[in-house]
Amino acid sequence: MAGFTTVRDVGAADFIDVGLRNSIRRGTVVGPRMLTATAGLGTTGGHCDDGNSWRKGVLADETGPGVADGPEALRAKVREVVKYGADLIKVCATGGVLSLNADVGSPQLTQAELDAVVDEAHARGRKVAAHAHGAEGAKRAIRAGVDSIEHGSMLDDEALELMKKKGTWFVPTAMAFQGVKELADKGSLPEENVRKVRTVEASREQVLRKAISRGVRIAFGTDAGVYAHGRNAGEFALLVQAGMSPAESLRAATVHAAELLGVSATLGTLEPGKLADVVAVPGNPLEDIRKTQAVFFVMKEGVIHRDDTAPSSA
């Protein structure tokens, strides 16, 4: 209802994302078409290890379902999540902001481990999204051939040049940083997490500005969930604030996002032969990109799900 008719869910427990995806496809639930990653893959104690912030013995499952160590073990994890319905693979190449046990920028997989994940995923026709803040972990992921770098808050010049050379997509998730900053400012995060927020805050927008100016391929993504769902369109204004034109920000969420997701044959543009996904906003977003936050009409595959101009049936 906020105007996003196709989404990636890059990490969920217990295959609940697969269940929701399938329910939407069957028409049992109304929602966006979903591409799901199931469990995010990572190493013991890393950002994708769901048990990484707890004392030993507290949790029934002390290791996250996507956790493995070594190239062959991670290759097996790729096979496992594909078996149970993954449309893409998510891997945590560095530490994260909202976990407690590791520096946000530290690399968490070896080059050989990342190589194995990407090789197995691509062999099975799945794209790979790499959570990466720090430059070294991101560069390992880029060299391995991941399809996208998510967040990228501390990328250095070498990483950006490598992404441009290899055509790696950058999904900067500016709204995620906005969301966690709001939580930090409200005092809603542990002090250790607040320090991480401040660390990435110092470099995030500078990295995004460099990526835009250097022509790195950018696709729209928001990491919704670390802030309230429905605010996703706030990403447009943050991209424009960092130097992207309004038109290019719209392309990032349509043409470019469809290419990253591998669905360009049916989605991403309005043209004959493609699915009829249409979103309407008041005014002209090319003149004021914040108009994207006032969606009043949503059509998915020719079915109208929201039309605020229609007469009330009450």
How does this structure look, described?
The chain is of the alpha/beta class. 36% of the residues lie in helices and 14% in strands. It contains eleven helices and nine strands. Strands 3-4-5-6 form a four-stranded parallel sheet. A three-stranded antiparallel sheet has the order 7-8-9, with no helix packed on it. The protein has a two-stranded parallel ribbon with strand order 1-2. α3 (111-123) links the parallel β3 and β4 (127-134). 47% of the residues are buried. The model has no long low-confidence stretch (mean pLDDT 93).
The total strand number stands at 9
- Please trace the helix and strand order, writing H or E for each element: EHEHEHEHEHEHHHHHHEEE
Stretches where pLDDT falls below 50 for ≥5 residues? Answer: none
Q: Determine the mean pLDDT.
A: 93
Distance between the termini: 20 Å
Write down the Rg. Answer: 19 Å
Question: Which range best describes the helical content: under 10%, 10-25%, 25-40%, 40-55%, 55-70% or over 70%?
Answer: 25-40%
Structure at a glance:
By secondary structure, this protein is of the alpha/beta class.
Structure keywords:
four-stranded parallel beta sheet, globular, about 325 residues, 11 helices
Please render the helix and strand layout as text.
Elements lengths: L5 E4 L6 H11 L6 E4 L34 H13 L4 E5 L18 H13 L3 E8 H10 L3 E7 L2 H10 L2 E3 L2 H12 L5 H11 L2 H10 L20 H8 L4 H8 L1 H7 L16 E3 L16 E4 L2 E5 L7
Parallel strand pairs: 1-2, 3-4, 4-5, 5-6
Antiparallel strand pairs: 7-8, 8-9
